[in-house]
Amino acid sequence: MLIPAETAIHRFRRDMTFGRLVKGLFVAAAVAAFVLPLAGIRLDPLMVLPVIACVFLALSVGSIRGSRLTADSPSLIAAGRFEEAEQRIDQALRSFSLFRHVKVVSLHHLALLRHAQRNWNESAVLCRALLGQKLGSMQGIGKPARLMLADALLEMGDVRGAGDAIAALYQQRLSLAEVLKLVAVQIDHQARLGAWPEIFAGVTAKVQLAELMPAAAAARTQALLALAAKKTGREDWSDWLRRRAELLADFQKLAADRPVLWELWERKVEG
Fold it and tell me: Which of 31, 66, 117, 153 has its CA 20 to 30 A from that of 124?
């Protein structure tokens, strides 16, 4: 069961608007409980306010349920349990929530799921929808969403769009995990542009960072560094980095994903 990105975004925007309306009604009702008696209307605030509080608490309980539904989604996605993650995200998006962060996190988790499924177009659409929101206290979601967007655009062949997404991250404070992802995406982006000297610059630091990446990202990053070394006449570095990449991944898969890498293994292919 796939949730179309546009459907999820429509639900998200509708629920965000409805949530703001409901919270506005609560505030208006609380103010009215004090103002109406001043206008001569017989109304006891001590009778009205507990009712408002009870209704608010009841809706809050339902909102907490939506938060719990999304909490396990990243671990399910990481474990490859995509169908179960999809069901939880779908339920969270369908359920009403007073809390804005529940809907924002649900949409972010759906983008994560689509990215893990290699559905690059839907991942990009969802990330753009998230980045188009005023995230406020949830600005932290904007950085991984922008990194996912850059990666998805590269996979779709939109090099310019990926470059714009990467550039927006340069002035932001990133966690170590975000720095590692940015380095991997940036090297991939520069390889698409044929910027081999720029890729090889600072190779020692880049190799150290690659060692901290997940195996697949580390293999691709070191393979691209190996090709950059070869293109810039550093065969010693190229051979060493190529062998490191081979320890982490099958070279045929690496080259199938990034055909430019076949140049590293042309002797093996010919042999």
Answer: 66
What DSSP state is assigned to residue 141?
A: G
How much is the pLDDT for 40?
60
0.85 cut: is pTM over it? Answer: no
- Identify whether the C-beta of residue 114 lies closer than 8 Å to the C-beta of residue 106: no
CATH topology of domain 1-173: 1.25.40
Instruction: Write out pLDDT tens, residues 225-242.
Output: 999 999 999 999 999 999
Average pLDDT, whole number, for the chain?
85
Q: Are 85 and 112 in contact, with CB atoms under 8 Å apart?
A: no
250 in helix, strand or coil?
A: coil
Q: Is the pLDDT of residue 124 over 70?
A: yes
Structure tokens at 45: 């605030």
In the chain, what are the helix, strand and coil shares in percent, each to the nearest 5?
A: 80, 0, 20
95 CB-contact burial (10 Å; exposed 0-12 / middle 13-18 / buried 19+): middle
Instruction: Give me the residue spans of the domains in the chain.
Output: 1-173, 177-271
Contacts with 110 (C-beta within 8 Å, 6 or more apart), sequence order: 3, 5, 8, 89, 93, 126
